[in-house]
Amino acid sequence: MDATRLRSSFETVAFTTAVPFDRSDGAVDHDALADNLAGIYEAGARLFVPCGNTGEYYALTDEERVAVVETHAEATGDEATVVGGAAGNVREVLDLAAEYEAAGADALMVMHPDHTYVHERGLAEYYHAICDGTDLGVVIYKRGPEVSRNVLIELSERDEVVAVKFAVDDVKEFAQTVQDADGAVTWINGIAERYAIPFAIEGAAGYTTGVGNFVPRVTLALFEAIDKEQYERARRIQQALRPLEDLREEPGAGSSIPNGNNVPVIKAGLDLAGYEGGPVRRPLVELSDADRERLESHYERLETWTPSRA
Question: Which catalytic residues are annotated (predicted)?
């Protein structure tokens, strides 16, 4: 897929997918994953991001990551775009990129740097080296201050950089970065439905979703309303989804670390929707009984809710 088509493929909802693990031996359940993907594709999803944080990237081996990307490429239709996540040093990222390309991926999402120490110039060179070493389209994932405005502005000029996933809840910084960057990248809101409206107004052509794994029709209705500038309707849909996002950002029972519920909510939601979520891997834990009851209540309300009447 050429760069122009790739950029346009990000002008939608990016489904950051969860990986179901077998409940008996903990291995990746590829049959269940394929069924999950077929369900959200049928609901209208066309942009899939496997091996991201929702996909428990850091709990997977490289072999599992490649196999998960391959399942995405095989289980989704010809109209789908598959963007595999990768992290680590340049060689590690490029080795994964090559295997992802062979597995059928269209693009590579470079995860937010996990290095303890970074330098702004060195970080820009890191991304340049990745762009130089792969034929896949490159997506830069910003999740903190390390990936600075200067770095994004510079990298936006690369033809290989097709999108930026901006996952920081700073609309002012996002707006200024979009204004200052002259490149043709597609800007996407990387913090899901909660900020979809203000980021769209400031230049985000799409947004990522986790809850879309199990309520795809609702989040796609939100995108449609924003795309048509039906902002009052969009606000009502966003407010209907917000309890799920609130639950995801909680630390979970017995923890003080934010967002511990993030992935467990998605996996439990898949189970509620008739798909297969499966267990999480360490260092995550399952939802508490109380949080699971709250999730069930929110899901039951959304299951009978009609976005077209929002």
Answer: 141 (proton donor/acceptor), 165 (schiff-base intermediate with substrate)
Grouping H, G, I as helix, E, B as strand and the rest as coil, residue 44 is coil
d(CA 120, CA 126): 10
Query: Which DSSP helix (H) or strand (E) runs through 100?
Result: helix 90-103
Residues annotated within the binding site for pyruvate are 54
Residues 278 and 29: beta-carbon distance below 8 Å: yes
User: What does DSSP say about strands 81-86 and 13-16: parallel, antiparallel, or unpaired?
Assistant: unpaired
Radius of gyration of the chain (CA): 18
Catalytic one of 57, 100, 165, 195: 165
What the chain holds in terms of domains, given with CATH numbers, is: 3-228 (3.20.20.70)
Q: Which residues contact 304 (CB under 8 A, 6 or more apart)?
A: none
Fill in the DSSP letter of residue 110. E
pTM assigned to the model: 0.97
Q: Is 141 one of the annotated active-site residues of the chain?
A: yes
List, for residues 68-116, the tens digit of each pLDDT value.
999 999 999 889 999 999 999 999 999 999 999 999 999 999 999 988 9
**Active-site residue, from 141, 207, 275, 299:** 141
Active site residue 58: no
**Annotated binding-site positions:** 54
Shortest CA distance to 74 belongs to which of 111, 110, 48? 48
